[in-house]
Every structure is written in C-alpha cells, then in structure tokens.
Write a structure and sequence with these properties.
mainly beta; five-stranded antiparallel sheet
Length: 75
C-alpha cells in the first residue's frame, strides 16, 4: 500500500473495461472513496473527461502492455 491509502494494481495506467457499466477507461488508482476500508477503482476516459469509480472486481480486459503504459518504464 502507498500514500493516501492507494493500493498497487498491475493495470494502473492501462485502459480497462468496467464491466459494471460497459465503459472503457484508464485505470488511475485503486483507493478509498468515502469508506477507507472499501477501496474503489478510479477510471478516466482515454480521451480525457470526468473520472468515475467502480468496484475493483468489475475491472476486466486490460489493454496490452506497451512501452507507453508499462509500469516499469521511466517517463
């Protein structure tokens, strides 16, 4: 776990499907919203726009790892 109660996740920075809504977005964080004991996934549309939250269990079908979204690549 890291600062601000953010949790690590291998798909952070990658486009994923939110199966609860059918939308796709960039996974920005897994972190608490209102309840610190129940983290949520924070997603943002790939083209920008308003973030939304969903249950971490609703994440699926991540985009393939590329040099642009690989978590180990220094930017």
């Amino acid at each position: 776990m890291s600062a601000l109660l953010h949790r690590e996740h291998p798909w952070i920075g990658r486009e994923v499907e939110d199966t609860a809504t059918g939308r796709r977005g960039i996974l920005r964080a897994i972190a608490p919203d209102y309840n610190p004991t129940h983290p949520v996934a924070w997603l943002q549309p790939a083209t920008g726009g308003t973030e939304w939250t969903t249950a971490p269990d609703a994440l699926a079908n991540p985009a393939p790892v590329t040099a642009d979204n690989h978590p180990k690549v220094a930017r």
